[in-house]
Amino acid sequence: MLLRLLLQAIFIVILPAAVQQNHPPQVIIKSPADNSEFTPAERVHYIVSVSDREDGESRFGEINKKEVLMQIANITMAGQEKRKAGDHGIDKGLIDMMRSNCLSCHSFDRQSTGPSFRQIFEQYKAQRSVLSRLEKRIQSGSRGVWGNQPMPSHPELSDDEIRKMAEWILFRAGKGEMQYYVGTEGFISFDSIRLKGSRNVYILSASYTDHGINGKNRLTGEYSVTISDSIGK
């Protein structure tokens, strides 16, 4: 009996622990509905639901609203009316920025602690020669470039992540047919990206990146719908 208990104890000790698996988050745009229409002057109410087996549920307040992104693309303005919602996913560099702490100091189109992404885009006018300089600032930090507020370093980011972030800022952050909102709920105004006198078609893409297992193997969930205004029908 004693021998059997001893063998069982040894078996339990040497049995490898089961590897904990991370599950991808489920993101749903609950409003507006896919293929819905609205009037051009209307502000559209959006609601995003996030469910993640490890992180929790947005309906219970367990998901950080600042980590939920809503991207709006006017595909009429971009001349891409025939593209489907699945073809207009969120850029990898932008997803990496949502995973990091970029939005603690920057916003998409308003001055915050640091310059907005649009301001940086307009300052450098998509100059590829600036790319390596911007990468270095993201990685090592900087001071005095946009005022006296220092930019912190990001040694935790890989070279590939930094490159994709810098490319998004330089080449996509100020594109006229795109706009961005942060949060699980809000109101979208299309005035700044609407093509006047035409029927506009928009793709709304929501995303959330989970926290993984001990910060590793982080996964992103996305969901898209297509809506349009009523002009031109």
Task: State the gist of this model.
The chain is of the alpha+beta class and 233 residues long. The chain is 22% helix and 23% strand.
Question: How would you describe the overall organization of this protein?
Answer:
With 233 residues, the protein is of the alpha+beta class. It has a domain at 22-81 and 179-233: Sandwich (Immunoglobulin-like). The protein is built from five helices and nine strands, in the order αβββββααααββββ. A five-stranded mixed sheet has the order 2-9-8-5-6. Strands 1, 3, 4 and 7 form a four-stranded antiparallel sheet that branches. Helix 2 packs across helix 5 (159-171) and helix 4 packs across helix 5. The longest helix is centred in the N-terminal third of the chain and has 13 residues, at 2-14. It is globular, with a radius of gyration of 22 Å.
Q: Structural class, judged by helices and strands?
A: alpha+beta
Mean pLDDT: 86
DSSP helix fraction: 10-25%
3D shape: globular
Low-confidence stretches: none
Give the arrangement of secondary structure elements.
Elements: H1 2-14, E1 26-31, E2 37-38, E3 44-52, E4 56-57, E5 68-74, H2 92-99, H3 117-124, H4 131-140, H5 159-171, E6 178-182, E7 185-188, E8 201-209, E9 220-229
Parallel strand pairs: 2-9
Antiparallel strand pairs: 1-3, 3-4, 3-7, 5-6, 5-8, 8-9
Helix pairs in contact: 2-5, 4-5
Key phrases:
233 residues, Immunoglobulin-like, 22% helix, 5-stranded mixed sheet, globular, 9 strands
